[in-house]
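Lecture notes, unit on protein representations.

Consider one protein chain, 328 amino acids long.
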Amino acid sequence: MGTRRNGSGHLPLTLGLLALSAAAVAPLALPGAAGAASTTTPTTATPGAASSTPTTAAPSAPATPATPATKAFTLPGRVVALSQPQADSSMWVLAGTSTKKSIYHVNVNKQKVLGKESVSAHADAIALSANNYTLALGTTGGAYPAVVWYYGITSRFNNAARSTAPVTSLAVNAAGNTIYALRSSASQKSVYALGTANSLGFPYLIPGTPVDIAPATDGHSMLVLQSDGTVGSLSLPAGVYTTSFGTGAPAKALALSPDGTTAYVLRSQAATTPTGSIVEVNVAQGTVIKTIATTGDVVDIVLSADGHTLYEAQWGTKDSSIRAIAVP
């Protein structure tokens, strides 16, 4: 998706999130209710499987100083979320306040802003497919929560779907034909698998208090990060949720390596801890490989397409910065 173009067939992101009529938006099915499945989401899913007993929290490895691959890249305003980086290190950054938000198309390594779009102030989640085919935004408020998606390359509006609960996190599969929306409210916690071709899908109930998701590249499972720092696995399409491992502290963001063997978990910054941390975890063993020290208030992390650069978004007083950290 590039800079705004007002030619025929293009719809600014602001309109895509603010001017959706009820007739144009397909309601998302309630969790547990029968719903048509997209061509990418089988109908045999059985949502709502019970969680297993949480495993013992993995001990933290000694913290190692962050080693930036490039200097910090500064953006105006406060970063809310980062999209997955493309192979050329470009990504979309959702930033702003409760009354005004924009998305910036940036290349952190080149220290360049490639484009900017105004979006709904209620947008709180963003995701981009690895092939740059689908860019998705999720909202948590306004007239109603929704998922809106666009053709990533051309900036053309594709479709939208109304949500039954605030969309707090998003992920898009590599092919760009399935969006996974984490929906969270006091009465509802679910992942909705949504087909971009026909806006149909199926909900998977999630126990606990999920805060982030990371689908495996094979499409058969998904890691789910809970607010207490435990990480669970949701099998697809069966919809069985089991707790995999703990990270020893409350957490707020998750990134998964392309081969699915390594997870990076951003721990929440405690009031008594001036700096936060990112733990690198062996997914199969559930053990912490190392702990990466962070400075300031880091709000989101994403991993590069090759899995060797971790990008962290950090709040400042009046602006934000994105820092690249080299990882094995």
